[in-house]
Queue: 3 jobs
Job 1
Amino acid sequence: MKVGINMLLWATQVTRDHVRQLKQVKAAGADGVEIPLFEGEVAHFRDLGLMLDDLGLERTTAMAMVSPTANPVSDDPKIRQAGTDQMKWLIECAAALGAPVICGPMFQTLGVFTGCAPTETEKRRVVAMLQEVAPLAAQAGVVLAVEPLNRFEAHMVNTTADGAALVKRVGHPNVGLLYDTFHANIEETDPVGAIRKHGKCIRHFHCSANHRGIPGQDHVPWLESFRALRAVGYDGWLMIEAFGRALPGLAAAIKIWRDLFPSNIAVAKQGLPFIRKTWKASARS
């Protein structure tokens, strides 16, 4: 099992200016980092991958569709095509970076709601988009891990069951689920049971506290969740995702109004050992 931390704590675009923070994360015990894919050229991510190799850090990637001009479920075919094109760009960037996973809500633009439940037409549009890009992901050696989001951020895919149904309809081995404990805390009636029921679809795992702070200093059922992951044979990443106020725009977007930890590096120094210890304990329980 490998553990890591999402670099959105420090930046929406990781560059060579973040070497100090990356070294700190490595020293705190991370096997790798999750790199945001929001902007930049493919060449930038190729260069970043070489730098991470030098630092001894593996990597995964995280994405989100944030522009209303690129949305896979839009009624406008040009906007839908822009969403597909964004996914193709993401796959290129992840391949250049040397990342085997792209995770995130790749089914709609964040915060764009119709005011209704997802329609069958919208679902078909997402399935068609993922079916188009999945072979490209396979060629690049990249898994697309679809992230169910809570109802306040998206309407298309909110629960693990929603995500598993989408993955089944896409029907491609390079498309699976990201399970995020923060969103599950809001949407699941039985978060641990959801892992056990749909665990075969889970290809990536976000360790995210119910308040977005440090895992282990919250009420997520970590030991039970890890037991469930072991029961379904999960052997992917355990990636910490926490959010602070260092990036005001991002903090405002995800509603972080107070400091949840003393420093960003404290998340790594306290969270990574907790995740390792609890994962180990889950084997003995």
Note: The mean pLDDT is 97.
Job 2
Amino acid sequence: MNLSKTLIAVALVSIALPAVAQTYPYSYPTYPSYPTVSSCPTLYYNLYVGQSDRSTQGQVSALQQFLSTQGYYQPVTGYFGAMTRANVAQFQRAQSVYPITGGVGPLTRAAIARVCGAVVPPVPPPQPTGSVSITGVSGPNSLTVGQSGTWQVSTNAPQGTPISLSVRWGDEVQYPYPASSAAQSAYVSQQNTFTHSYQTAGTYTITFTASDQYGRSNSSSVTVQVSGAATTVGFTATPTQGAAPLYVNFGINTTTGNDMNTLSIDFGDGQTGKPNTIYCFAAPCNPAMTAQHTYTTNGTYTAKLLRDNNYCQPGMYCTLMYREPTVLGVVVITVTSQ
């Protein structure tokens, strides 16, 4: 009898539990939602290294969020540092925005708007009255090839307005190294002192441009005469003319302490090579280094002996630090038909 009562009680409980569960459903915890920054920002400041959200009304974070959505590794920190500058430079290359500065100016803002499909022009913030100007440029008006020159730039702007300076050295098109040349010869900075050297003789026009975050700018240009410097490295070729295919021996006499690892040869036909060192035990060794190359097509070729500045050891991640190589010697090779 007691067993029957127990079975009846268990059956009643099994029937009642689902009903209770339907009457009092389980409440899952709720989590707060965080606001997100638009991936298509409306930017009206000139943004560059050293700026933060405080001085740009949050536009550094907006820029970083945009870069992140474009596939770049870009934490949103609200501070414009080296990583943001590198990502902006990559974006400029991808969108063919030149010069590649790593800073955000009118051209880069237009590219961001173009990527986002924006059609409404940004509304600029209130700006102080006055103008931006370059009041003076001082520096050398003559140099020799490979010699560094330093220029001081004086600027003027309304009180409290930060100014950025960009410079074009005038030799950008002479080197087939677009990424390296852009980084060295055209950049934006808040400094007022700039240093540069030229690797080819000639007359160059240097243009400095001052601008502020409101889009106001002013430019000033100076010229510098660069004369050829006597080379301390002998660079020869034998023969210098003949019928194709022309086998040429190059000789390098370097007794001035040049690092052999930094020397290379641009043969002038789209190919390069490293010279071989001749080891000897009685000075002088003449030539100290040699190289061989075969020219297979008719034409006139200018072979150049180059010294790679900021030499990068094999396997090291420093190739982006390269400056343009220094030309130490030139030989003209003429290849004719049979």
Note: The domain at 133-227 is CATH 2.60.40.10 (Immunoglobulin-like).
Job 3
Amino acid sequence: MVRIVLVFALIFSSLHTQAVDISAISAAFKAGNASSLVSYLDQEVDIAVPGTAKKCDANGAVTLLNSFFGSNKPAGFTVVHNADKKESGFLVGKLATSKGEFRVNLTYRTENDKAIIQSIRIE
């Protein structure tokens, strides 16, 4: 009997867990629109783009991304992998640009079913 209750509890908890909507983040990378990411950025963001890696506030991250997008005009963005846990998640994507393809790695925490980006790595 205990096993049945545990199985139902496990099934219910897995059905109750919702994936965070990352479509706006994906669209921002596809369009090269760093400004639209500002509401998804944490107070401090670890950010790395080719040639630069630092920890900065949301506005500094937007400035750094705008500079990167200015030099590498985005032509498309594809999510390769996305996984959510209870309070965090990550995204791996491919960013096609005018100067080639880059791999994008994001980590985020979840807050009220919203992704709050903690780190961005473009390589």
Note: The two ends are 52 Å apart (CA to CA).
